[in-house]
Amino acid sequence: MSGTRVTDALTRLLDRAPTPEDFTSDARTPQLTARVGTWLGVCFLVAFLTGVWSHVAQLPNPLVPLPTRPIWLYRVTQGVHVAAGTAAVPLLLVKLWSVFPQLFRRPPTATRARLLDAAERVSILVLVSSASLQLVTGLANSAQWYPWSFSFRATHFALGWVAMGSLLVHIAVKLPVIRSAWLGPEVVPDPGAVSRRSILRVTWAAAGIAVVSSAASGVPGVRHLSVLATRSGTGPGGVPINKTAVAAGVATTATDPTFALTIVGGRTQVHLTRAELEAMPQTTATLPIACVEGWSATGTWGGVRISDLMALVDAPTGAAVLVESLQRGGASSRSRLPGNVAADPQAILALTLAGERLSLDHGYPCRIIAPNRPGALQTKWVNRLEVQA
């Protein structure tokens, strides 16, 4: 009896629910859905590829060491990643609006067709859920807001594969519809109705405004238009500060007058005060620093080449270097310089920025700066360098 009541209740609910035909907007056409969906797919593909690159760049032991040239490569890929993800937000909203009536499509009566319809709906649910979560967590990361306890980097990376996999399945299922929408005849709206082209223009404009206002702080010339960016693009030496010494818990230890950098190579150890580091041959390098939140800036850094420091402990050519910070705990407390990075003449232990002593929040007494590296790996407040065999 209870089963019959449930069936009757579901039947009444379906009878009251709207059907796709109840949504009369002429703008909701396959042509609109296909065009917005295509650009949304491009944004997701670009974000996925640049995201994989960023993930590999942050691995401590990548199978193939990433190149140090061009020095701006990570800056560009990370900026494109954030821009593509930001542009995808209005595109996804318009895409969901265009297909919303299909949510109320009645399932077919034939068993096989019903199963296929259910499978398609489940795949769409996975796609929409993973895509939405990717964009929401990505924007939250750009704002450095983390209202969750899980690892953003690991989760974002895993969800990227889920979103791309479900997107490829969706494209395969809908390919005939997509092809027909792109190549088929144009649907002419009724006079006075909002046209597909008008909605597309508004969508492109919304995507452009979203990118410029929130993700262009690292682009010279339009930085002042990025009013929603979490970083202004300025700071001591013209470089923003992501984490302060107080937040890292190193304000006292970093200013301790007894500080000495420890360099370890096998059984050999060398201890250098900041004054002794300043007495070594100095070099300068004009390098960008780029963070996963999307901001970037270029600074002129001065200090000692990593290769010169490694020579003090007779490190073999091409040896990797483990970098440790005064900061205790957290992903930025240590990093690894692959052999090709440690040997690069522009990989330095920075003591100055823009000709001035490194500020405490920028990593005083010394920090790592190397070409084509994620900002999270440009370790600040360095107190130990250890040669790895």
From TrEMBL:
InterPro entries: Di-haem_cyt_TM (IPR016174), Mopterin_OxRdtase_euk (IPR008335), OxRdtase_Mopterin-bd_dom (IPR000572), OxRdtase_Mopterin-bd_sf (IPR036374). Keywords: Membrane, Transmembrane, Transmembrane helix. The keyword Ion transport does not apply. It comes from the Bacteria. Residues 256-388 form the Oxidoreductase molybdopterin-binding domain. CDD domains: SO_family_Moco. The chain crosses the membrane at residues 36-56, 76-97, 118-140, 152-173. The keyword Cell division does not apply. One of its GO terms (biological process) is respiratory electron transport chain. GO terms for molecular function: oxidoreductase activity. Pfam families: Oxidored_molyb (PF00174). One of its GO terms (cellular component) is membrane. This is Molybdopterin-dependent oxidoreductase.
